């Protein structure tokens, strides 16, 4: 029984975290949730609010088109469209994480002296089909601060 309770609590915590993300995007600080921004957010992810859920939103929204945070939290716990948005966000976060891992692996492979940056010499050792002009153009593009070194954060822009 304790294991089932733990799983239920973990699932609820994950849902609450996802709902908090929705509220952060649709509210002003700790204030109410804007229905317009909520609808735009969901539409931007190709998610439609069905008529039943929209009716619930209309009932809990005030005359200015806002929903108090505690009312939104209760609505969101039962909302299929909010759960879909949360799943989509989890997927996108996982994909970003994969890209970050790839960026770091590639960076470490090029940073042969483990200095924490890639310099022109290390970039030049890539060779292959990249001639000197292309390497210099890549260095200019990635070296945002112009110090002649590409940091991991600068390098990550290739993976976004």
List the helices and strands and how they pair.
Blueprint: H1 2-26, E1 33-34, H2 35-44, H3 51-60, E2 66-67, H4 69-78, H5 80-110, E3 117-119, H6 120-124, H7 132-142, E4 149-151, H8 152-156
Antiparallel strand pairs: 1-2, 3-4
Q: Which series of helices and strands comes N to C?
A: HEHHEHHEHHEH
Order of strands in the sheet with most strands = 1-2
Tally of DSSP helical segments: 8
Please mark out the parts with pLDDT under 50 across 5 or more consecutive residues, or reply none: none
* Biggest beta sheet summary: 2 strands, antiparallel
Supply Rg: 23 Å
Helix/strand-derived category reads mainly alpha
CA(first)-CA(last) distance: 44 Å
Query: What percent strand?
Result: 5-15%
Helix content: 55-70%
- What is the overall silhouette? elongated
Number of strands: 4
Your description of this structure?
- It is a single chain.
- The chain contains eight helices and four strands.
- By secondary structure, the protein is mainly alpha-helical.
- The protein has a two-stranded antiparallel sheet with strand order 1-2. A two-stranded antiparallel sheet has the order 3-4.
- The two termini are 44 Å apart.
């Amino acid at each position: 029984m304790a294991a089932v309770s733990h799983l239920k609590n973990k699932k609820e915590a994950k849902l609450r975290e996802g709902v908090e993300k929705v509220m952060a995007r649709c509210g002003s600080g700790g204030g109410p949730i804007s229905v317009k921004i909520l609808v735009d957010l969901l539409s931007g992810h190709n998610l439609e609010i069905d008529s039943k859920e929209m009716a619930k939103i209309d009932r809990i929204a005030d005359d200015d088109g806002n929903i108090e945070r505690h009312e939104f939290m209760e609505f969101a716990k039962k909302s299929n469209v909010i759960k879909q948005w949360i799943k989509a966000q989890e997927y996108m976060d996982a994909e970003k994480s994969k890209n970050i891992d790839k960026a770091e692996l590639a960076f470490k492979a090029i940073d042969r002296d483990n200095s924490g940056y890639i310099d022109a010499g290390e970039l030049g050792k890539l060779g292959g089909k990249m001639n000197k002009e292309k390497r210099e153009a890549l260095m200019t593009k990635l070296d945002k601060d112009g110090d002649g070194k590409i940091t991991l954060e600068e390098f990550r822009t290739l993976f976004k």
